[in-house]
Amino acid sequence: MATVVNIFSGRATRYLAEKIAVSYGKKLGDVLITDFSDGEFQPSFEENVRGNDLFIVQSTFAPSDNLFELLLMIDAAKRASARHIIAVIPYFGFARQDRKDKPRVSIAAKLVANLLTAAGVQRIITIDLHADQIQGFFDVPVDHLYASSIFVPFIKQLNLPNLVMASPDTGGTRRAAAYAKILNTSFVICYKQRSKANQVDTMALIGDVTGKDVILVDDIIDTAGTICKAAKLMMDNGAASVRAFCTHPLLSANAIERIEASPFTEVIVTDTIPLRRESPKIKVISTATLLADVIGKVHNYESISTLFKFE
Q: Residues in domain Ribose-phosphate pyrophosphokinase N-terminal (predicted)?
């Protein structure tokens, strides 16, 4: 008898899980999350999941209740005798804390991996981890998807005459180079110096953007300080236009206001995190079809490598 697939969602990412379920062709599972007066909450699956393949969709952006809700749902699925428990984490939070960058700090990404494994997860599906090596923090399989599989076709449809890819910092050089290779174009880099987190002091451009249509690529857009500064730098150096493609739109503090006041033609993001509010300069591309395809392939033990091939 074929194993049944169930797709459930936590509260933080239900808007995306509903689209994933529609794309997969299945009704989103019924979950009841009870809130108690002291701030505790308890999720429960309101349908039988014994022997089924459970895909639990939840991004782990702030507050940390989103992460804890996912952990409780995984534990509930394990105690309900689900056959396989797969966490679909479109945005893997705490990923920027992937190493000790100064003494006496935690490696939060590793701690979160340990917590998910201890809860009983058997596979992780995620998109654009902040650092590829986070996959090695897990002792269970990780299907690491790339937003490039939906961004690249969109970039091609723009038909920009003088395309050049760009990275807003040296840490994203590899990402910009990968896009440039796929799109058969060149890339440039911004070199920045910080005095503290979320504050860029100086930025310089490495490469020529004169008359070019620049596309900045990054995995996370948080306060938007770096990327807006990079956009201004591109235009100051003679770029014809500048756009940004960023996977995870954290958009904290006054990020949206910064983008609206910036020289960006548009900023393209995905729906791994819900937008705080709409903006005429921000366009959202859904990851639902990509994640639904992967859920089907994981369930049927098929390769997902075809998703990374560009014709």
A: 6-120
